[in-house]
Structure formats: structure tokens, C-alpha cells
Specification:
Blueprint: E1 11-19, H1 28-35, E2 40-42, E3 47-52, H2 57-73, E4 77-83, E5 93-94, H3 97-107
Amino acid sequence: MTTSPNPRANAWVLEATIRTAPAADPHWQEQLDRLRPIASYDTEPQTWHARLGALDLADVQMLQALFDAARVHGTAVCLTPVAVPAYWDGPVFTRGPDVAALLEALADRGRPLGQLPRA
């Protein structure tokens, strides 16, 4: 019996990471109000996270909200392609060869150039 290949093996999502503005910021509540509906908060590194698997109107509006919050509150937004999480049931981007190479490199950070990937 042959198994069919996992269609998600060649897919990725875009992860947005947003460093929070300091809690002393007079606009702290405004930042929370902007980000809470579209991102989840991780208390340890004090960052917000959102994932996108398509660039439809809702996703473009989410990205705009993230960048607006960053501009207003002086925070940074980092966009990184990541492998599709096991729990993700939304749309995904198709992995092209250039994105596949980037994902593989990001998955094995800290490896000196020229060394084989860790097993």
C-alpha cells in the first residue's frame, strides 16, 4: 500500500512577530486594542504573533494593522516564512525552491556555513 504525499509538506505560512511597546507607553491600551483581535501574545519574550497563509483582503488588512501599530508605537514587525504548524487549518502558501531553501536555513540556525545540517 502506498501513502499519498502530504500536501502540506510543500507549503508554508508567514509568521509576523511584533515586539511590544513598553507598558509605560501612554498608548499601551491602544496598542492592545489594535493587536489583540489579530495576534496572540507571548509573555516571556513580550511579543505578539500572527500567521498568514494567504494574502486576501482580510490578510492585507491584518498586515496593515500590524505595521500601523509598529509605526504608531515605535515597535518592530518581523515577517518570516515558517513551516505549516500541525494545528494550522487555514490556507497556506506553496513552497517554491527559493522559499524552501530559506525555510531549511531558518530551521537549522547556528550551523556554520558549509557544515551539514543537524540530524
